[in-house]
Amino acid sequence: MIYKPPQQKLLRWIALFLVGTFLQLLFYIPTPVLSQNSNSCSNITAPLTSEEQTYARAAWQYFVKNYQPATGFTNSTGGYPSGTLWDMGNYLMALNAARWLNLTDQADFDSRLNKFLTTLNTLKLFEDALPNKVYNAATAQMVDYGNNPLERGIGWSALDVGRILAAFDVIRTCHPQYNEWLKGIVAKWQVARSLKDGELFGATVLPDKKTLLVQEGRLGYEEYGARGYQLWGFSAPKAIALEPFKLVEINGVQIPVDSRDFQSTNANNYVVSESYILDGIEFGLQGELADFAARVLDVQKRRFDTTGQLTAVTEDNINQAPYFLYNTVYANGVNWATITDGNQPYPQFRSISTKAAFGWRYLFPDNAYAQKVFDAVKDLRSPDDAGYYAGIYEESKQPNKALTGNTNGLILEILYYKARGNHPLIASGSASVSNGKPSENVSGKPSENASPVTPANQPNSTVKTPIAIPTDNSKPTEVAVAPIPPVDSPSSNLKLDRSLTVIERRYAEAAWRYFQANYHSKNGLIDDRSDFKGATLWGLGNYLSALHAARSLDIITPKEFDRRTRHLLAALTKLPLFAGELPSRSYDTRSLQPVDYGGNPIPEGNGWSALDLGRMLAALYNLKTCHPEYTAAVDKIVLDWSYLRVVREGILSSATVTKEQDGRYLTRVNPEIRLGYEEYAARAFQLWGFNLERSAVGGEYQTASVEGVKVPIQRHRTDTNSKVNQYTVSNPFVLYALEFGLDPQMRSLFEPIFQAQAERYRRTDTLTASATTLIDRKPYTVHSTITGQGEAWAALGDDGKPVPKGRLVSTAVAFAYHALLPENKYSQELLQGTTDLYNPSAGFYEGFYETTGKTAIGFTSDTNSIILQSLLYSVTNRQPLIRPTTTTNSLWWQAVSEGNSGRGLPSTATPQTKLISDSSGSYWVSDGKNTHLVTGTK
After folding, report:
1. What pLDDT is stored for residue 427 in this prediction?
2. pTM (2 d.p.)
């Protein structure tokens, strides 16, 4: 709630009574419930008067003058760079009010909120669970209340969490473009650790360094905090209930008082104004709370009637020692007590609170006493335009010149409440919202022609499949697919060398969130990218690989693994095949019908991608090996496909469809020659017995000098004239290394690719993890190359055109390089630069921009699958993830042995690759192949 530096504030809301030994609560992701407002956030039905505009401008100036541009936070008190989560909630409420009261424009609002949320999302958490009680507002470091940096922190406050959750709800309601971002932040926090037995629990660090959970909240604030939790799906029924309380007569008024006393609990049971004011302006006073609030106001009027002393009491900073006091109606058995958090009395510093006077004035606009006390403070502004002072000392009649975000934030909230016609900010959410947008930090919506991130994006011939502009924007009906029948109890042959660390598990859980958030429960499919309802076979291969990794890492249960696997296998049997041969390049994940890369329906299909097939075949092979109970179902799927045209004379080929001028659609089949991807897919086909000696890694490769390193740019070949946009990126090489290991031929390609990126970092201090990634604006897919179109470090679109300032540092590639080369200093640098780039409810972001450091918004199955696979690789003693099978009598090999299938099955019933081990490690290899690097240019 309030931030208290030494010489300014003391510890607030810590109920220091023992509740037993450490408690562990399961973390869960709530289902947020967005407020449903009948009035709009922007609908000002009672515009501020000229005087009220002056009040609002003065309060907003506090935040302008106390803004910390490095973090986006504001100081909790004037000039003092520190703040709690409660203070952050104050600022968010003030920022929202300032936007709708036209104290700031949308651009400034977005700029401030983007910076704030970016920093908030990367805060170091206490015990990796919840935000520390206080942070340095200028540096975002965890500190104590003296603003001294602390590596561990001092605990968390459940009440402060409740405050910011309420503020989050207002922001997501009035500015829904930030909803997903806020959901991600909340999901990252282990909010459930602050709940036990229906109550709110904070955490404090004992002198022996142990963490103690302590119940937080007394009548008034406890209910308010619990309402914040409730907005995000966290139930605290005991906390939100009014009991236990009793009525104490003060100045002839029966005042509700929490019956848990200080002597028994070491927690103050004070009665103050602010909790009721907050409840009123944010949630609306109803029922008993409305009665309680009226009593609390009335007793202050009665004191004035009796003594002649204007009274508006609540907690406040003061501008002298002890710097923070609770001015109360009642506390710990004493009427009108003014105390510290430690229950030390300071009656000489009781004050009339500015924020309390503003609150009562606008909550009870017809109350003459509320108007009277308001008149005493309404002009209590600092002469240097730094905001409103905290109040007036009763005894000296001098201003309490403390300047705080709490006072000024609450004033702005109150004035916004008034401008909305005294309509609560939360009790009915808002339907009319801002039309600004986040900067690089909130997911943007691509155009209808955005392409899924997959190597199959690029046609493998000079003829490009046309992408039509959608004309029918109606939502397709989601097709339901029944899972295949149950198989034997799910098993796994994979043995881990060690368990995930706590941090690694957090990363794995975050990556798996992508596959939870983008799952189509009716048909079992997963979207290739979060902003596009489409899937390729490459993306579904990602999903199957992620499923295996998540189960192996114990991120999901055997039951969930089995349910999802059987559903996906069933969906694969329902996908219409192009020309009755092979799955099309892309499908709508709702209708299961073929679409182009812009999502436009094309009933006849748009060809197939051999690369995508390779990705799926690798995943299906590993499913059979590690989970043999699915072998029959897998074999039935792949036996439905015809391989006559995809494997030709030892080369992989893909099909595209073009429309001629006369309106005819023609299919063209051309060899696949994309560097790295061809080699990966060929090895996958070899697992199933296909002879692909001319596509598998080997032969001669042309190179170009990049950072003094000979980097491969394309295979030297005479068997095709096919042309594609040639570029070298890391993606296929790290995927190959993770799944198949680094055989000598692939190692000779992999190592210079990595070395060139490390050398660039050494020379320029620019982290480099070159990859194909998604971005949230045109051209929507960027190839951050090592070399492309003859230029080192070019950023290219699918069309081969440069993308200025478009280079990204890939999160997936960073994780993969670290898994593959854990002792390498550069791979360690990469990992450190990218590990926090995730939204816990949506998965890992694609990466960050090299030039600005800003997060590249977008989520894909590709990135999150590779991260899961990288983590699995790290705990399996760095063994190739694809494991060999010993089963040779399955349906697939039986059909191959029978021959004459008419569908292009292999000629021999044995894999054309094998797993071997030597001094350099384990890897898959095919016989008699050598790689030679030939220096040259394209």
Report:
1. 57
2. 0.57
